[in-house]
Amino acid sequence: MVTAVAREAFTHQGNNSSALPKDPCQETIVWPGPELWLTKVMAEKTPDAVLILLASIVCALCASLEARGATLSVTFTPIPPGTNVDLTAEGSLDWVHWGLYTASSIDRKAGVTPQIPDYTPKGFTGPYPYADNFNGYSWRDGFPTLSVTNTPTGVWMYGKPNGFELLFPADTTPKTLKIYVGAFGAVGEFTATLSGAAKYTDTSISNTGNGPGGVYALEVAADTPGDVLDIKYVVDRIFDKTGNVTLQAAALSAPGVNNPPSVSVSHPADGANFSVNDNISITADAADADGSIVKVEFFRDDAKLGESMKSPYNLTWSNAQPGNYLLTARASDDRGATRTSAPVQVFVNGTGGALSGRGALPSNSVDGSYRIDLTVDGTDDWAHWGLSSTASFDHKAGVPQQISNFTTIGNNDTQRLEDYVTEFSWSDGTPTVSAATTRSGVFIHGATEGFRITAPADTSFRTLKIYVGNYGTEGKFQAYLSDHSAPAYLDTSLRGLTVYDNAYTNYTLDYRAASSGQELIVEFTSRTLFDADYGNVSLAAATLSGASATTNEPPEIALTSPLASGNQFSFSFSTEANRTYTVEHTMSLSPVNWQTLTNMVGEGSVLTATDTIQAETPQFYRVIAQ
Description:
Helix content: under 10%
Number of strands: 54
Number of domains: 5
Largest sheet: 9 strands, antiparallel
Low-confidence stretches: 1-67, 548-552
Number of helices: 3
Distance between the termini: 101 Å
Radius of gyration: 33 Å
CATH class of the largest domain: Mainly Beta
Mean pLDDT: 86
Protein backbone atom coordinates (compact mmCIF):
# COMPACT_ATOMS: atom_id res chain seq x y z
CA MET A 1 0.00 0.00 0.00
CA VAL A 2 1.22 3.53 -0.79
CA THR A 3 -0.01 6.64 0.98
CA ALA A 4 0.75 10.31 0.36
CA VAL A 5 1.66 12.18 3.52
CA ALA A 6 0.93 15.91 3.56
CA ARG A 7 3.84 18.19 4.35
CA GLU A 8 1.87 20.18 6.88
CA ALA A 9 1.62 17.16 9.18
CA PHE A 10 5.25 17.47 10.31
CA THR A 11 7.91 19.96 11.21
CA HIS A 12 10.19 19.70 8.22
CA GLN A 13 12.93 21.75 6.54
CA GLY A 14 14.09 20.85 3.01
CA ASN A 15 14.31 17.08 2.50
CA ASN A 16 15.27 16.15 6.07
CA SER A 17 14.03 12.56 6.36
CA SER A 18 14.49 12.59 10.14
CA ALA A 19 11.19 14.40 10.41
CA LEU A 20 9.31 11.50 8.78
CA PRO A 21 7.16 9.11 10.84
CA LYS A 22 9.02 5.94 11.81
CA ASP A 23 7.68 2.42 11.27
CA PRO A 24 9.86 -0.70 10.92
CA CYS A 25 7.47 -2.11 8.32
CA GLN A 26 7.54 0.96 6.11
CA GLU A 27 9.98 2.37 3.57
CA THR A 28 9.90 6.14 3.12
CA ILE A 29 10.57 7.73 -0.26
CA VAL A 30 11.41 11.45 -0.46
CA TRP A 31 10.30 12.66 -3.93
CA PRO A 32 12.93 15.03 -5.38
CA GLY A 33 10.38 17.46 -6.82
CA PRO A 34 7.65 19.44 -5.10
CA GLU A 35 7.64 18.68 -1.40
CA LEU A 36 5.79 15.33 -1.51
CA TRP A 37 6.45 12.32 0.70
CA LEU A 38 5.40 8.78 -0.14
CA THR A 39 5.37 6.03 2.46
CA LYS A 40 5.34 2.45 1.20
CA VAL A 41 4.19 -0.37 3.50
CA MET A 42 6.76 -3.15 3.05
CA ALA A 43 4.33 -5.92 4.00
CA GLU A 44 2.32 -5.43 0.76
CA LYS A 45 4.75 -5.85 -2.09
CA THR A 46 2.33 -6.75 -4.89
CA PRO A 47 1.98 -5.66 -8.55
CA ASP A 48 -1.14 -3.77 -7.58
CA ALA A 49 0.91 -1.73 -5.14
CA VAL A 50 3.28 -0.70 -7.90
CA LEU A 51 0.41 0.51 -10.09
CA ILE A 52 -1.15 2.38 -7.21
CA LEU A 53 2.21 3.95 -6.45
CA LEU A 54 2.58 5.26 -10.02
CA ALA A 55 -0.98 6.54 -10.17
CA SER A 56 -0.61 8.27 -6.82
CA ILE A 57 2.62 9.96 -7.94
CA VAL A 58 1.02 11.25 -11.15
CA CYS A 59 -2.08 12.54 -9.37
CA ALA A 60 -0.05 14.13 -6.61
CA LEU A 61 2.22 15.88 -9.13
CA CYS A 62 -0.76 17.20 -11.11
CA ALA A 63 -2.37 18.52 -7.95
CA SER A 64 0.89 20.11 -6.89
CA LEU A 65 1.40 21.85 -10.23
CA GLU A 66 -2.19 23.15 -10.30
CA ALA A 67 -1.90 24.48 -6.81
CA ARG A 68 0.99 26.69 -7.74
CA GLY A 69 -0.19 27.60 -11.31
CA ALA A 70 -1.86 30.96 -10.55
CA THR A 71 0.42 33.85 -9.63
CA LEU A 72 -0.39 37.43 -8.73
CA SER A 73 2.30 39.79 -7.51
CA VAL A 74 1.56 43.52 -7.29
CA THR A 75 3.93 46.44 -6.81
CA PHE A 76 2.91 50.07 -6.29
CA THR A 77 5.22 52.89 -7.45
CA PRO A 78 4.46 56.62 -7.00
CA ILE A 79 4.78 58.70 -10.18
CA PRO A 80 6.72 61.96 -9.62
CA PRO A 81 4.91 65.11 -10.80
CA GLY A 82 5.92 66.12 -14.30
CA THR A 83 6.74 62.59 -15.42
CA ASN A 84 5.89 61.78 -19.03
CA VAL A 85 4.87 58.11 -19.33
CA ASP A 86 5.61 56.64 -22.78
CA LEU A 87 2.74 54.22 -23.37
CA THR A 88 4.23 53.03 -26.66
CA ALA A 89 7.32 51.83 -24.78
CA GLU A 90 5.47 50.49 -21.74
CA GLY A 91 2.84 48.52 -23.68
CA SER A 92 4.67 46.07 -25.91
CA LEU A 93 1.49 43.94 -26.15
CA ASP A 94 -1.20 46.59 -25.68
CA TRP A 95 -1.97 49.90 -24.02
CA VAL A 96 -5.05 52.04 -23.39
CA HIS A 97 -5.56 55.70 -22.50
CA TRP A 98 -8.86 57.12 -21.28
CA GLY A 99 -10.31 60.64 -21.36
CA LEU A 100 -8.28 62.42 -24.04
CA TYR A 101 -11.29 64.57 -25.04
CA THR A 102 -14.36 63.28 -23.18
CA ALA A 103 -15.25 60.64 -20.61
CA SER A 104 -15.89 58.17 -23.41
CA SER A 105 -12.64 58.85 -25.28
CA ILE A 106 -10.51 55.72 -25.51
CA ASP A 107 -7.24 55.42 -27.42
CA ARG A 108 -5.28 52.19 -27.67
CA LYS A 109 -2.29 50.59 -29.37
CA ALA A 110 -2.86 50.27 -33.12
CA GLY A 111 -2.10 47.19 -35.16
CA VAL A 112 -2.47 44.64 -32.35
CA THR A 113 -5.31 42.52 -31.01
CA PRO A 114 -6.78 44.44 -28.04
CA GLN A 115 -6.13 42.65 -24.74
CA ILE A 116 -6.83 45.37 -22.17
CA PRO A 117 -10.59 45.82 -21.67
CA ASP A 118 -12.41 49.10 -21.27
CA TYR A 119 -13.34 49.98 -17.70
CA THR A 120 -16.78 49.61 -16.11
CA PRO A 121 -17.88 52.48 -13.83
CA LYS A 122 -18.64 51.43 -10.26
CA GLY A 123 -21.47 53.69 -9.15
CA PHE A 124 -23.27 56.52 -10.90
CA THR A 125 -21.19 59.60 -10.00
CA GLY A 126 -19.31 59.83 -13.27
CA PRO A 127 -17.20 59.19 -15.14
CA TYR A 128 -16.05 62.70 -16.01
CA PRO A 129 -13.02 63.84 -18.00
CA TYR A 130 -10.27 66.03 -16.57
CA ALA A 131 -7.05 67.60 -17.82
CA ASP A 132 -4.89 68.51 -14.81
CA ASN A 133 -3.19 65.26 -13.91
CA PHE A 134 0.19 65.65 -12.17
CA ASN A 135 1.94 63.60 -14.86
CA GLY A 136 1.42 63.18 -18.60
CA TYR A 137 1.13 60.38 -21.15
CA SER A 138 2.52 60.10 -24.67
CA TRP A 139 2.21 57.65 -27.53
CA ARG A 140 3.07 57.40 -31.23
CA ASP A 141 1.29 54.19 -32.26
CA GLY A 142 -2.33 54.86 -31.29
CA PHE A 143 -5.82 54.65 -32.70
CA PRO A 144 -7.96 56.62 -33.28
CA THR A 145 -5.45 59.29 -32.22
CA LEU A 146 -2.13 58.41 -33.85
CA SER A 147 0.18 60.34 -31.53
CA VAL A 148 -0.04 62.53 -28.44
CA THR A 149 2.69 64.20 -26.38
CA ASN A 150 2.45 64.55 -22.60
CA THR A 151 -1.33 64.79 -22.19
CA PRO A 152 -2.43 65.26 -18.54
CA THR A 153 -5.91 63.82 -19.20
CA GLY A 154 -7.94 61.04 -17.66
CA VAL A 155 -11.35 60.23 -16.13
CA TRP A 156 -12.68 60.39 -12.56
CA MET A 157 -15.48 59.08 -10.34
CA TYR A 158 -16.37 60.72 -7.02
CA GLY A 159 -17.83 59.60 -3.71
CA LYS A 160 -17.41 56.44 -1.65
CA PRO A 161 -17.40 53.60 -2.75
CA ASN A 162 -17.46 54.61 -6.43
CA GLY A 163 -14.69 54.08 -8.94
CA PHE A 164 -13.58 51.78 -11.74
CA GLU A 165 -13.44 48.07 -12.50
CA LEU A 166 -11.41 46.25 -15.16
CA LEU A 167 -11.96 42.57 -15.91
CA PHE A 168 -8.70 41.48 -17.50
CA PRO A 169 -8.76 38.07 -19.27
CA ALA A 170 -5.62 36.37 -17.93
CA ASP A 171 -4.02 33.20 -19.27
CA THR A 172 -1.21 30.87 -18.24
CA THR A 173 1.48 33.03 -19.89
CA PRO A 174 3.10 35.42 -17.37
CA LYS A 175 2.36 39.06 -18.22
CA THR A 176 2.77 42.45 -16.59
CA LEU A 177 -0.27 44.72 -16.48
CA LYS A 178 0.30 48.31 -15.33
CA ILE A 179 -2.62 50.46 -14.16
CA TYR A 180 -2.08 54.24 -13.84
CA VAL A 181 -4.37 55.87 -11.27
CA GLY A 182 -4.67 58.81 -8.89
CA ALA A 183 -6.92 60.53 -6.34
CA PHE A 184 -8.25 64.00 -5.53
CA GLY A 185 -9.32 64.80 -1.97
CA ALA A 186 -9.54 61.10 -1.23
CA VAL A 187 -7.85 57.82 -0.45
CA GLY A 188 -8.04 55.28 -3.26
CA GLU A 189 -8.40 51.56 -2.60
CA PHE A 190 -6.87 49.27 -5.21
CA THR A 191 -7.80 45.57 -5.19
CA ALA A 192 -6.88 42.71 -7.50
CA THR A 193 -8.46 39.26 -7.36
CA LEU A 194 -7.46 36.15 -9.33
CA SER A 195 -8.68 32.60 -8.78
CA GLY A 196 -5.98 30.52 -7.09
CA ALA A 197 -4.01 33.55 -5.81
CA ALA A 198 -4.24 35.67 -2.69
CA LYS A 199 -6.30 38.86 -3.01
CA TYR A 200 -4.29 42.08 -3.14
CA THR A 201 -5.47 45.29 -1.43
CA ASP A 202 -3.65 48.62 -1.18
CA THR A 203 -4.46 52.21 -0.16
CA SER A 204 -1.16 53.94 -0.92
CA ILE A 205 -2.61 56.88 -2.90
CA SER A 206 -3.92 59.57 -0.55
CA ASN A 207 -4.29 63.25 -1.51
CA THR A 208 -6.11 65.95 0.49
CA GLY A 209 -6.54 67.90 -2.77
CA ASN A 210 -5.12 67.37 -6.21
CA GLY A 211 -1.89 65.45 -6.09
CA PRO A 212 0.39 62.88 -7.69
CA GLY A 213 -0.76 59.42 -8.62
CA GLY A 214 0.99 56.13 -9.12
CA VAL A 215 1.18 52.91 -11.08
CA TYR A 216 0.27 49.41 -9.94
CA ALA A 217 2.33 46.75 -11.74
CA LEU A 218 0.60 43.37 -11.63
CA GLU A 219 2.67 40.29 -12.49
CA VAL A 220 -0.04 37.81 -13.40
CA ALA A 221 -0.42 34.27 -14.71
CA ALA A 222 -3.69 32.38 -14.51
CA ASP A 223 -4.18 28.81 -13.33
CA THR A 224 -6.48 28.16 -16.31
CA PRO A 225 -6.82 30.03 -19.64
CA GLY A 226 -9.80 32.34 -19.48
CA ASP A 227 -9.54 33.12 -15.76
CA VAL A 228 -10.39 36.76 -15.06
CA LEU A 229 -8.22 39.15 -13.10
CA ASP A 230 -10.74 41.44 -11.38
CA ILE A 231 -9.24 44.89 -10.72
CA LYS A 232 -11.12 47.56 -8.79
CA TYR A 233 -10.01 51.06 -7.88
CA VAL A 234 -12.56 52.90 -5.73
CA VAL A 235 -12.89 55.73 -3.22
CA ASP A 236 -11.99 54.45 0.26
CA ARG A 237 -12.15 57.72 2.23
CA ILE A 238 -12.77 61.35 1.26
CA PHE A 239 -11.32 64.64 2.51
CA ASP A 240 -13.48 66.75 0.19
CA LYS A 241 -17.13 66.56 -0.81
CA THR A 242 -15.98 65.92 -4.37
CA GLY A 243 -13.27 63.48 -3.32
CA ASN A 244 -12.63 61.15 -6.25
CA VAL A 245 -10.38 58.55 -7.80
CA THR A 246 -8.88 58.90 -11.26
CA LEU A 247 -7.92 56.50 -14.03
CA GLN A 248 -5.64 57.50 -16.88
CA ALA A 249 -4.05 54.54 -18.63
CA ALA A 250 -3.02 50.88 -18.66
CA ALA A 251 -0.16 49.05 -20.38
CA LEU A 252 0.48 45.35 -20.99
CA SER A 253 3.83 43.63 -21.59
CA ALA A 254 5.45 40.21 -21.23
CA PRO A 255 9.04 38.98 -20.83
CA GLY A 256 10.85 38.70 -24.15
CA VAL A 257 8.06 40.20 -26.25
CA ASN A 258 9.28 42.37 -29.11
CA ASN A 259 7.55 45.74 -29.16
CA PRO A 260 6.72 46.52 -32.82
CA PRO A 261 8.12 49.74 -34.28
CA SER A 262 6.02 52.87 -34.64
CA VAL A 263 5.79 54.65 -37.98
CA SER A 264 3.81 57.47 -39.57
CA VAL A 265 3.94 59.48 -42.79
CA SER A 266 4.83 63.03 -41.75
CA HIS A 267 4.95 64.52 -45.28
CA PRO A 268 2.94 65.14 -47.38
CA ALA A 269 -0.13 66.03 -45.35
CA ASP A 270 -3.37 64.11 -45.78
CA GLY A 271 -5.36 65.60 -48.65
CA ALA A 272 -2.37 67.36 -50.27
CA ASN A 273 -2.60 68.35 -53.94
CA PHE A 274 0.20 68.04 -56.50
CA SER A 275 0.52 68.76 -60.20
CA VAL A 276 1.11 66.06 -62.79
CA ASN A 277 4.78 65.08 -63.22
CA ASP A 278 5.71 66.62 -59.86
CA ASN A 279 8.50 65.02 -57.87
CA ILE A 280 6.77 64.31 -54.54
CA SER A 281 8.92 64.07 -51.42
CA ILE A 282 7.63 61.50 -48.90
CA THR A 283 8.95 61.48 -45.32
CA ALA A 284 8.22 59.02 -42.52
CA ASP A 285 8.87 59.18 -38.78
CA ALA A 286 9.86 55.77 -37.38
CA ALA A 287 11.13 54.60 -33.98
CA ASP A 288 11.55 51.35 -32.05
CA ALA A 289 11.11 51.37 -28.27
CA ASP A 290 13.19 48.26 -27.58
CA GLY A 291 15.62 48.11 -30.49
CA SER A 292 16.38 49.88 -33.74
CA ILE A 293 14.84 50.52 -37.16
CA VAL A 294 16.57 48.65 -39.98
CA LYS A 295 14.51 49.99 -42.90
CA VAL A 296 11.40 51.91 -43.89
CA GLU A 297 9.59 50.98 -47.10
CA PHE A 298 7.28 53.37 -48.95
CA PHE A 299 4.14 52.35 -50.84
CA ARG A 300 1.72 54.03 -53.26
CA ASP A 301 -1.47 52.02 -52.78
CA ASP A 302 -0.05 48.46 -52.98
CA ALA A 303 2.95 49.30 -55.17
CA LYS A 304 6.31 49.69 -53.48
CA LEU A 305 8.04 52.97 -54.37
CA GLY A 306 11.31 52.27 -52.59
CA GLU A 307 12.92 52.16 -49.15
CA SER A 308 15.18 54.11 -46.82
CA MET A 309 17.73 52.49 -44.52
CA LYS A 310 18.53 55.36 -42.15
CA SER A 311 16.99 58.44 -40.60
CA PRO A 312 15.69 60.75 -41.92
CA TYR A 313 13.52 58.22 -43.72
CA ASN A 314 12.45 59.76 -47.01
CA LEU A 315 11.96 59.05 -50.69
CA THR A 316 11.11 61.02 -53.82
CA TRP A 317 8.27 59.79 -56.02
CA SER A 318 9.08 61.09 -59.49
CA ASN A 319 6.79 61.95 -62.39
CA ALA A 320 3.53 61.33 -60.56
CA GLN A 321 0.54 60.84 -62.84
CA PRO A 322 -3.04 62.10 -62.30
CA GLY A 323 -5.04 60.22 -59.70
CA ASN A 324 -5.73 59.95 -56.01
CA TYR A 325 -3.41 57.72 -54.05
CA LEU A 326 -2.88 56.30 -50.57
CA LEU A 327 0.69 56.61 -49.32
CA THR A 328 1.93 54.36 -46.51
CA ALA A 329 5.24 53.52 -44.87
CA ARG A 330 6.24 50.16 -43.38
CA ALA A 331 8.96 50.06 -40.73
CA SER A 332 10.99 46.95 -39.81
CA ASP A 333 12.97 46.59 -36.58
CA ASP A 334 16.12 44.63 -35.73
CA ARG A 335 14.11 41.64 -34.43
CA GLY A 336 11.93 41.23 -37.49
CA ALA A 337 8.75 43.02 -36.36
CA THR A 338 7.03 45.34 -38.83
CA ARG A 339 4.30 47.93 -38.68
CA THR A 340 2.52 49.85 -41.44
CA SER A 341 1.52 53.47 -41.01
CA ALA A 342 -1.95 54.91 -41.34
CA PRO A 343 -2.55 55.92 -44.98
CA VAL A 344 -2.19 59.48 -46.23
CA GLN A 345 -4.32 60.39 -49.24
CA VAL A 346 -2.83 62.67 -51.90
CA PHE A 347 -4.13 63.97 -55.23
CA VAL A 348 -2.12 64.42 -58.41
CA ASN A 349 -3.93 66.71 -60.80
CA GLY A 350 -3.83 67.67 -64.45
CA THR A 351 -5.46 70.76 -65.92
CA GLY A 352 -8.59 71.78 -67.78
CA GLY A 353 -11.09 71.37 -64.95
CA ALA A 354 -12.13 73.58 -62.05
CA LEU A 355 -13.25 72.93 -58.49
CA SER A 356 -13.78 75.32 -55.61
CA GLY A 357 -15.69 74.98 -52.36
CA ARG A 358 -16.91 76.89 -49.35
CA GLY A 359 -18.95 76.10 -46.27
CA ALA A 360 -21.62 78.28 -44.67
CA LEU A 361 -25.07 78.03 -43.18
CA PRO A 362 -27.97 79.05 -45.45
CA SER A 363 -28.59 82.78 -45.57
CA ASN A 364 -32.40 82.64 -45.29
CA SER A 365 -32.87 82.36 -41.53
CA VAL A 366 -36.52 82.53 -40.46
CA ASP A 367 -37.28 82.77 -36.73
CA GLY A 368 -33.85 81.33 -35.96
CA SER A 369 -34.32 78.38 -38.31
CA TYR A 370 -33.19 77.76 -41.85
CA ARG A 371 -35.63 76.72 -44.58
CA ILE A 372 -34.72 75.32 -47.97
CA ASP A 373 -37.19 74.56 -50.76
CA LEU A 374 -35.40 71.75 -52.58
CA THR A 375 -37.65 72.12 -55.62
CA VAL A 376 -36.56 75.73 -56.09
CA ASP A 377 -32.89 75.28 -55.22
CA GLY A 378 -32.33 72.04 -57.11
CA THR A 379 -33.17 73.04 -60.67
CA ASP A 380 -31.24 70.10 -62.17
CA ASP A 381 -31.75 67.61 -59.32
CA TRP A 382 -32.06 67.34 -55.58
CA ALA A 383 -31.88 64.59 -52.96
CA HIS A 384 -33.09 64.13 -49.40
CA TRP A 385 -32.29 61.33 -46.98
CA GLY A 386 -34.03 59.91 -43.92
CA LEU A 387 -37.60 61.18 -44.31
CA SER A 388 -39.22 58.17 -42.62
CA SER A 389 -36.40 55.64 -42.22
CA THR A 390 -32.67 55.23 -42.75
CA ALA A 391 -33.45 53.80 -46.20
CA SER A 392 -35.59 56.78 -47.31
CA PHE A 393 -34.16 58.42 -50.42
CA ASP A 394 -36.28 61.09 -52.11
CA HIS A 395 -35.17 62.98 -55.20
CA LYS A 396 -36.48 65.20 -58.01
CA ALA A 397 -39.10 63.58 -60.23
CA GLY A 398 -39.38 64.02 -63.99
CA VAL A 399 -35.63 64.33 -64.62
CA PRO A 400 -32.84 61.78 -64.90
CA GLN A 401 -31.42 61.15 -61.44
CA GLN A 402 -28.05 62.88 -61.18
CA ILE A 403 -27.25 63.00 -57.45
CA SER A 404 -26.53 59.45 -56.31
CA ASN A 405 -27.84 57.79 -53.19
CA PHE A 406 -25.14 57.65 -50.54
CA THR A 407 -22.81 54.76 -49.89
CA THR A 408 -21.36 54.41 -46.41
CA ILE A 409 -17.67 54.67 -45.64
CA GLY A 410 -16.84 52.24 -42.83
CA ASN A 411 -18.75 49.43 -41.18
CA ASN A 412 -21.21 51.02 -38.76
CA ASP A 413 -24.96 51.17 -39.29
CA THR A 414 -26.73 54.29 -40.50
CA GLN A 415 -29.24 55.88 -38.11
CA ARG A 416 -31.99 58.45 -38.58
CA LEU A 417 -32.14 61.96 -37.08
CA GLU A 418 -35.04 64.39 -36.73
CA ASP A 419 -33.34 67.54 -35.44
CA TYR A 420 -31.25 68.85 -38.33
CA VAL A 421 -30.81 72.62 -38.15
CA THR A 422 -32.45 73.26 -41.56
CA GLU A 423 -36.07 72.56 -42.51
CA PHE A 424 -36.49 71.07 -45.97
CA SER A 425 -39.55 71.00 -48.22
CA TRP A 426 -40.32 69.95 -51.80
CA SER A 427 -43.22 69.60 -54.23
CA ASP A 428 -41.76 67.57 -57.12
CA GLY A 429 -40.32 64.49 -55.48
CA THR A 430 -40.30 60.75 -55.85
CA PRO A 431 -41.22 58.43 -54.22
CA THR A 432 -42.61 61.06 -51.82
CA VAL A 433 -44.32 63.65 -54.02
CA SER A 434 -44.20 66.50 -51.50
CA ALA A 435 -43.11 67.35 -47.98
CA ALA A 436 -44.14 70.46 -46.10
CA THR A 437 -41.20 70.76 -43.68
CA THR A 438 -38.86 68.11 -42.38
CA ARG A 439 -35.67 68.27 -40.31
CA SER A 440 -34.84 64.64 -40.90
CA GLY A 441 -31.60 63.13 -42.14
CA VAL A 442 -29.23 60.25 -41.49
CA PHE A 443 -26.07 59.90 -39.41
CA ILE A 444 -23.32 57.37 -38.78
CA HIS A 445 -21.19 56.96 -35.66
CA GLY A 446 -17.49 56.24 -35.28
CA ALA A 447 -13.96 57.29 -36.22
CA THR A 448 -13.36 57.56 -40.01
CA GLU A 449 -17.01 56.55 -40.70
CA GLY A 450 -19.12 58.59 -43.09
CA PHE A 451 -20.86 59.02 -46.46
CA ARG A 452 -20.00 59.20 -50.15
CA ILE A 453 -22.16 60.66 -52.94
CA THR A 454 -21.49 61.51 -56.59
CA ALA A 455 -22.79 63.94 -59.20
CA PRO A 456 -22.14 64.12 -62.96
CA ALA A 457 -19.35 66.33 -64.31
CA ASP A 458 -18.43 67.52 -67.80
CA THR A 459 -17.11 70.72 -69.36
CA SER A 460 -20.17 72.71 -68.18
CA PHE A 461 -20.09 74.44 -64.82
CA ARG A 462 -22.38 73.06 -62.12
CA THR A 463 -23.05 73.89 -58.48
CA LEU A 464 -23.62 71.14 -55.93
CA LYS A 465 -24.77 72.01 -52.42
CA ILE A 466 -24.55 69.42 -49.63
CA TYR A 467 -26.17 69.84 -46.21
CA VAL A 468 -24.17 68.04 -43.50
CA GLY A 469 -23.47 68.18 -39.78
CA ASN A 470 -21.69 66.45 -36.94
CA TYR A 471 -21.70 65.89 -33.21
CA GLY A 472 -18.71 65.10 -30.98
CA THR A 473 -16.35 64.93 -33.95
CA GLU A 474 -14.20 66.99 -36.24
CA GLY A 475 -15.49 66.48 -39.77
CA LYS A 476 -13.47 65.87 -42.93
CA PHE A 477 -15.20 67.06 -46.10
CA GLN A 478 -13.49 66.21 -49.38
CA ALA A 479 -14.45 66.56 -53.04
CA TYR A 480 -12.55 65.68 -56.23
CA LEU A 481 -13.13 65.15 -59.93
CA SER A 482 -12.84 61.66 -61.39
CA ASP A 483 -10.51 62.88 -64.17
CA HIS A 484 -8.36 64.79 -61.63
CA SER A 485 -8.35 67.85 -63.85
CA ALA A 486 -8.38 70.28 -60.91
CA PRO A 487 -7.08 70.25 -57.31
CA ALA A 488 -9.28 68.47 -54.78
CA TYR A 489 -11.20 70.48 -52.19
CA LEU A 490 -10.64 69.66 -48.50
CA ASP A 491 -12.11 71.17 -45.33
CA THR A 492 -11.55 69.93 -41.77
CA SER A 493 -12.90 72.92 -39.87
CA LEU A 494 -16.42 71.67 -39.07
CA ARG A 495 -16.72 71.05 -35.33
CA GLY A 496 -18.84 72.33 -32.46
CA LEU A 497 -17.87 75.12 -30.09
CA THR A 498 -17.12 72.41 -27.53
CA VAL A 499 -16.49 68.69 -27.99
CA TYR A 500 -20.11 68.06 -26.96
CA ASP A 501 -21.76 70.45 -29.44
CA ASN A 502 -23.45 69.93 -32.80
CA ALA A 503 -22.14 71.71 -35.89
CA TYR A 504 -23.82 72.21 -39.26
CA THR A 505 -22.92 73.68 -42.62
CA ASN A 506 -23.91 73.81 -46.25
CA TYR A 507 -20.96 73.09 -48.54
CA THR A 508 -21.20 74.71 -51.96
CA LEU A 509 -19.05 73.22 -54.74
CA ASP A 510 -18.60 74.98 -58.10
CA TYR A 511 -17.00 72.64 -60.60
CA ARG A 512 -16.41 71.44 -64.13
CA ALA A 513 -14.31 68.60 -65.57
CA ALA A 514 -11.89 68.68 -68.47
CA SER A 515 -13.95 66.19 -70.45
CA SER A 516 -17.43 64.71 -70.60
CA GLY A 517 -18.59 61.59 -68.78
CA GLN A 518 -16.85 62.39 -65.50
CA GLU A 519 -18.03 62.51 -61.87
CA LEU A 520 -17.64 64.72 -58.85
CA ILE A 521 -17.00 62.50 -55.82
CA VAL A 522 -17.89 63.89 -52.40
CA GLU A 523 -16.92 62.26 -49.08
CA PHE A 524 -17.77 63.36 -45.55
CA THR A 525 -16.24 61.45 -42.63
CA SER A 526 -15.28 61.81 -38.99
CA ARG A 527 -11.63 62.92 -38.84
CA THR A 528 -11.26 63.17 -35.06
CA LEU A 529 -13.68 61.48 -32.68
CA PHE A 530 -14.26 63.35 -29.41
CA ASP A 531 -17.22 61.42 -28.05
CA ALA A 532 -16.38 57.73 -28.53
CA ASP A 533 -19.93 56.64 -27.63
CA TYR A 534 -22.01 59.00 -29.75
CA GLY A 535 -19.75 61.10 -32.02
CA ASN A 536 -21.16 61.08 -35.56
CA VAL A 537 -21.43 62.79 -38.94
CA SER A 538 -24.77 63.47 -40.61
CA LEU A 539 -26.16 63.96 -44.12
CA ALA A 540 -29.54 65.56 -44.85
CA ALA A 541 -29.88 66.86 -48.41
CA ALA A 542 -28.17 68.01 -51.63
CA THR A 543 -29.12 70.17 -54.61
CA LEU A 544 -27.65 70.45 -58.12
CA SER A 545 -27.92 73.36 -60.52
CA GLY A 546 -26.08 74.91 -63.45
CA ALA A 547 -23.77 77.89 -62.90
CA SER A 548 -23.36 80.97 -65.07
CA ALA A 549 -19.59 80.94 -65.18
CA THR A 550 -17.56 82.01 -68.17
CA THR A 551 -15.84 79.18 -69.98
CA ASN A 552 -13.31 81.04 -72.17
CA GLU A 553 -9.60 80.38 -71.90
CA PRO A 554 -8.01 81.48 -68.59
CA PRO A 555 -6.55 85.02 -68.67
CA GLU A 556 -3.03 86.07 -67.85
CA ILE A 557 -2.49 86.91 -64.19
CA ALA A 558 -0.20 89.54 -62.68
CA LEU A 559 0.84 89.27 -59.02
CA THR A 560 0.93 92.70 -57.39
CA SER A 561 1.38 94.41 -54.01
CA PRO A 562 3.74 91.91 -52.36
CA LEU A 563 3.96 92.56 -48.62
CA ALA A 564 5.93 90.81 -45.87
CA SER A 565 4.84 91.48 -42.29
CA GLY A 566 6.24 89.40 -39.44
CA ASN A 567 5.79 85.77 -40.37
CA GLN A 568 3.17 86.51 -43.03
CA PHE A 569 3.52 87.25 -46.75
CA SER A 570 0.70 88.44 -48.98
CA PHE A 571 0.13 89.50 -52.58
CA SER A 572 -2.84 90.47 -54.76
CA PHE A 573 -4.16 89.71 -58.25
CA SER A 574 -7.16 90.68 -60.39
CA THR A 575 -9.92 88.13 -60.98
CA GLU A 576 -12.87 87.39 -63.22
CA ALA A 577 -16.24 86.58 -61.69
CA ASN A 578 -16.97 82.89 -61.10
CA ARG A 579 -13.52 81.75 -62.22
CA THR A 580 -11.49 79.47 -59.92
CA TYR A 581 -7.94 80.48 -58.98
CA THR A 582 -5.46 78.07 -57.40
CA VAL A 583 -2.63 79.65 -55.38
CA GLU A 584 0.46 77.43 -55.17
CA HIS A 585 3.84 77.76 -53.46
CA THR A 586 7.17 75.95 -53.38
CA MET A 587 10.41 76.35 -51.41
CA SER A 588 12.59 75.44 -54.37
CA LEU A 589 12.60 75.80 -58.14
CA SER A 590 15.17 73.03 -58.55
CA PRO A 591 13.68 70.60 -57.87
CA VAL A 592 10.24 72.16 -58.04
CA ASN A 593 7.51 70.97 -55.67
CA TRP A 594 4.40 73.10 -56.15
CA GLN A 595 1.82 72.65 -53.39
CA THR A 596 -1.65 74.18 -53.14
CA LEU A 597 -1.91 77.03 -50.65
CA THR A 598 -5.59 77.81 -51.27
CA ASN A 599 -8.36 77.83 -53.88
CA MET A 600 -10.28 81.07 -54.47
CA VAL A 601 -13.30 81.99 -56.58
CA GLY A 602 -13.09 85.29 -58.45
CA GLU A 603 -15.64 88.06 -57.93
CA GLY A 604 -14.47 90.43 -60.68
CA SER A 605 -12.32 92.27 -58.15
CA VAL A 606 -8.83 92.12 -56.66
CA LEU A 607 -8.19 89.20 -54.30
CA THR A 608 -5.38 88.92 -51.75
CA ALA A 609 -3.63 85.67 -50.84
CA THR A 610 -1.78 85.37 -47.51
CA ASP A 611 0.71 82.72 -46.43
CA THR A 612 2.12 82.10 -42.94
CA ILE A 613 5.86 81.47 -43.19
CA GLN A 614 7.06 78.86 -40.69
CA ALA A 615 10.77 78.90 -41.57
CA GLU A 616 13.30 81.41 -42.88
CA THR A 617 13.56 79.83 -46.33
CA PRO A 618 12.80 81.24 -49.79
CA GLN A 619 9.22 80.87 -50.98
CA PHE A 620 7.95 81.02 -54.58
CA TYR A 621 4.33 81.58 -55.55
CA ARG A 622 2.12 81.20 -58.62
CA VAL A 623 -1.59 81.51 -59.39
CA ILE A 624 -3.40 79.30 -61.90
CA ALA A 625 -6.72 80.44 -63.40
CA GLN A 626 -9.11 77.70 -64.49
